[in-house]
Amino acid sequence: MIPLVVDTDPGVDDAYAIALAARAPEADLRAVTAVFGNVDLPTTTTNARRLLGMLGRGDVPLGVGADRPLVHPVTQRAADVHGDDGLGGVAERFGPLGPEPAGRALDVVAGVLETSSEPVVLAAIGPLTDVALLLATRPDLTGRIGRLVVMGGSVGIGGNVSAAAEFNVWSDPEAARRVLVEERVPTTLVPLDLTHVVTVDRSWLEALAASGPLGEALAATRHVYGHGEALRVDRVPIHDAVALLEAVVPGTLATVPLELEVDTSLGPSRGLVLADRRGRAPGGHTVDVAVPDGTDVDGVRAALLRRLSGDMPVRPRG
């Protein structure tokens, strides 16, 4: 089993991802940490507690992370996609509340890294503030991170919060640049270029809803259909769940190694992730960027549904 930590800002698609992390037989979920993002930090923290409680994962410590970006204040949330409660207006369907937070996110993650006998996979599916702070303040622990799997960015199709930028990177570009450009931890980036292809339709959601209370609650977050309508399709992306599947089943997504840059200016391209496709420069740092070409998109959808609907055995940590 893969030792796993999830840093998240729940968030509808984050809810799918947390459920996957808790249920996937390949994963040993060691901790969840909440960061600001889709909604404010108190709400993301409560939503993480709701999800862990509903999943029966009181064994998983919850850390409380950053409530703002590293440098510039956040100017926009994502209530138009996720609802004011972060869970599509149906947060009350999730619960009971899981355990109280175990401490600061940095301390919780550091504790996991310090005590793990194996490299830990860190899945970052919200703004990268917590990850940047961890890497900056505890460089002694970077060698214990087996891989970062980041949901964020867009390297060729434009953004979803601006013409240039994807929401997670745009929310804290300075943190994203630290993680994706300056650090040397093995990293897989799962951008909009792929998650806008791996979308699910109503029949997929109906099958999930029929699987039981968890599937019914997840499928009830229909507010996410507003995002599907914005894409002018009758399908919706569940971005973070796609990244989580790659985290627990490495190699699920096809990737290409690319050198990246993140725009931290205050202009219209703030948060842009620029991929250098000219080939790796000597000494350059590359990130494995997930791409549609070579990815079995139907297989990804089926794998997500199997794990979220409970069609695979669950092995909780214990």
UniProtKB/TrEMBL annotation:
This is Nucleoside hydrolase. PANTHER family: INOSINE-URIDINE PREFERRING NUCLEOSIDE HYDROLASE, URIDINE NUCLEOSIDASE. GO terms for molecular function: hydrolase activity. InterPro entries: Inosine/uridine_hydrolase_dom, IUNH, Ribo_hydro-like. Pfam families: IU_nuc_hydro. It comes from Actinomycetospora chlora. Residues 5-298 form the Inosine/uridine-preferring nucleoside hydrolase domain. Coiled coil: none annotated. Keywords: Glycosidase, Hydrolase. The keyword Lipoprotein does not apply. The keyword Oxidoreductase does not apply.
